[in-house]
């Protein structure tokens, strides 16, 4: 609540005042633990500390990244080559070290972030020790402490209620039920629940690992792999290749042994080494090792870039979810508005006059006359102000109550309150009973007047007029209790329902401060094809007015709806939501249902929030986004936290996810071409019994210049295309034409060159010449595939292709490079035949691109599966 009570004591506010003074608390009869008792409990380990960090130890992270299927395949091939003594052909194994290092570093960064999670969400608590109320950290709470639980606190340990001052808890983190639970003396409250209103003095009954807090924190820290279409696709390729590689490797070794004269001669003269190396060349080419490396690298770069934007992502795979988002549900307070509330006016209602409720024109938030005080010569004005102060001080814990108390400066809460019912977001009203026998109710006008709908039409019109102007409107109403009514602090426990004969006495107009970054941020999402909806617990007309001011739907007027009219059936709800931009009076369980309904319509949903009532929806959404100043429970369930609570970071977050995923899909097609042609060439070698047409070092050189290094630059290019599932299907369809054409061109050269040139492949010199020609054909086919992936070539992409094509040619002319990678340029007739086979490959690539769709009955993409740049909005 916004203000403490006077010297007599009463519930204090959660946040400290401007001067930093501690909040005031009611008097406590018992002194609490002494310093010696606290010290003994600390020595015994009865402290609210859990020793576990994140759910993964350093050894688990290393083991997971080292012992992978990919590493096993590449390491096995590298060991085999090293056993032959041909170390130059084993350089492909360096990718294991690089990829594993990036994976370990990325997960260690995630572990560090997760270990800091409890620090990010921790806040100070107040305990009563030695007769004084002292602030302590979460970890300093000990067993048997007298602990104050205030509105907004996440209960840090299991406690028993000693005395309740209207405490209501949200136990949805424990039970899944969004209904708030009122707690009284002797009741238990478990860690992980959150105080949504009131306060209480409690006694700690369980701390540390024995409490629910430890279990909830452990759940929040669990390193659970997010489903990734990209990783699933890569793993599928690796699994298929594993099934293919083992028998094909055996067949290749057998074939290569025969090509050098058989096992007996190969073992006798040592030519078995060359046969094994040739077999490995086929195996290594089929594994998209660069794709695995580039994926790890891109996720790591995304993490670094997002961290620079004060955005915390628990798992890098979440960027894929960011890329797919097409529906963004925004919580108004804390996202569009900054949570700041200004009390504008107290407007007495004149029930006996035919004139309007108020003769004052209220135009825009923050531009109202009255100086924050009302009543004037109205004899009821002072009483209304006093009643409003009392009900706010006793029951309303949110920013509205604080703003009202600040607006009515100089008026102090009275000591005449006999009973109180604190405000809750689910109920949307609060109440007190004065000693004079009058009950005062304060809350949403449509809620307070619901039992007597239609009896006060002018009041309803005034509420609508104020709300349409973007004001937050509340009502003060009263009820005279029968003479002799016995009232105590638990009166509302028995009389907590809303009476049907309340007398409306005043309207309270407040306004919210809109974030400066809200309008441009929403404009960006509109341009990118992301449908934004505002989901709020406030009056729908008020929310719609604010949404209109920030351009939620551009120049069109936002379509609003009261959530109380929403259908309960999820299917019907999904249809209704297609025509709604703003929802008001939304309950916590409805926010969750809204996310479920959007899922039913096929949307990928992101949800922002900062309150406890948003936690269920954040858990249900594909991507839960919490503000840095959000409630601890909200940040605990969110996948992404905007540390500085700036809504303007979201476009960069979404754009970064789209860039990574769209570009990774683009370059994945490039890597998969190598897998296709390597498998087909290996199969052709097995069937025809010829020597393998190139060495492992050839594929390392060619792959680096036509796939690996260009892919890195392409993966960093701007790209805002919204990602959609189906990664593997699209990249396979793209890779087949280039892979088939490349394999046929290389096999044609390997099959025909010996007869055309009179080479005897049994001779080392002729075999080396044949492999050099085949490697050159393979290189230029790789350049053509690269040009296809990088298209259109009118921009820097064309320069990129030319640079790496030139690098390959120049490298072959440098003696050291040519010697290391065993490349020799052909001369004379061999040079002409090499050009002919390259031309043949180009023709085959065109034909494969044209004929393959007709043969397979599917639309095989003629272009890369991603939009080439970031200028095009999502479809």
TrEMBL record:
It is a multi-pass membrane protein. It is found in: Cell membrane. Keywords: ATP-binding, Membrane, Nucleotide-binding, Translocase, Transmembrane, Transmembrane helix. InterPro entries: ATPase_P-typ_cation-transptr_N, ATPase_P-typ_cyto_dom_N, ATPase_P-typ_P_site, ATPase_P-typ_TM_dom_sf, ATPase_P-typ_transduc_dom_A_sf, ATPase_P-type_domA, HAD-like_sf, HAD_sf. Coiled coil: none annotated. Residues 31-80 form the Cation-transporting P-type ATPase N-terminal domain. The keyword Ribonucleoprotein does not apply. The chain crosses the membrane at residues 66-84, 90-108, 237-255, 275-301, 667-692, 698-719, 731-753, 769-787, 799-818, 830-855. Its main location: membrane. Residues 368-380 have a biased composition (Gly residues). The keyword Transmembrane applies. NCBIfam families: ATPase_P-type. This is HAD-IC family P-type ATPase. It comes from Bifidobacterium favimelis.
